[in-house]
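Pasting as-is:
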Amino acid sequence: MIDPKWLELLVCPVSGGTLAAYGETHLHCEASDLCYPIVDGIPVLLAEEAVPRIELETPS
C-alpha cells in the first residue's frame, strides 16, 4: 500500500489529477479514469503503462 503522504504529492501524468488507491495493485485518477500499476510497492506513473479503470473491472 502507498503511504497517504505520497498520494498527496503524486499526480496523474496524463491529466494532472489526483491519485487514489484502487485496490492493492493500482492507483486511480478520477479525472482521466486511468489506473496505474503499483509494482513492488512503487507506482509506475507512465502514460503507456496506464489502463482504463473499466479494463480492471471486466473479467478476462
